[in-house]
Amino acid sequence: MVIPARHIISVHTVTVDDYDLLLRMKAKALDLLKQFGHNVEASRLGFHIPPFNTVNHLHLHVLGGKFKSALRESKYEPGKIYYMELSQLLAKLETKMPTEKR
C-alpha cells in the first residue's frame, strides 16, 4: 500500500487539487513494484470505494503477481462497484481540470 500523510477520507473526497499527490503515489507504487521484481505491466493499482473500504483514509493498493484464490482476486476486480483503479480516478479528475493543466 501507498498511504499519503495528508488525510483524505476516500476516493469520494479526492479533488483536482489532489491530482499531483496521486501521481506521486503512483510513482512510489511503480518504484516498489520494480524493487520487488514484479512485472509493472501486469500489476494493479487501485482503491476500494466506500462503503466497501475498511479504513477511512485513502490508501493505494499496489498489487503485483497472481492471487492465490479467486475470492481474493475478486476484491480487486476493475469495473466493480467496490474497486476503482488509479487510472480511472485520474481520468475522472482530468475531466474536471482546465485543459492546460492536464
TrEMBL record:
<dbReference type="InterPro" id="IPR011146">
    <property type="entry name" value="HIT-like"/>
</dbReference>
<dbReference type="Pfam" id="PF11969">
    <property type="entry name" value="DcpS_C"/>
</dbReference>
<dbReference type="GO" id="GO:0000166">
    <property type="term" value="F:nucleotide binding"/>
</dbReference>
<dbReference type="GO" id="GO:0016787">
    <property type="term" value="F:hydrolase activity"/>
</dbReference>
<feature type="domain" description="HIT">
    <location>
        <begin position="1"/>
        <end position="72"/>
    </location>
</feature>
<keyword id="KW-0547">Nucleotide-binding</keyword>
<feature type="short sequence motif" description="Histidine triad motif">
    <location>
        <begin position="57"/>
        <end position="61"/>
    </location>
</feature>
<dbReference type="InterPro" id="IPR036265">
    <property type="entry name" value="HIT-like_sf"/>
</dbReference>
<protein>
    <recommendedName>
        <fullName>HIT domain-containing protein</fullName>
    </recommendedName>
</protein>
<keyword id="KW-0378">Hydrolase</keyword>
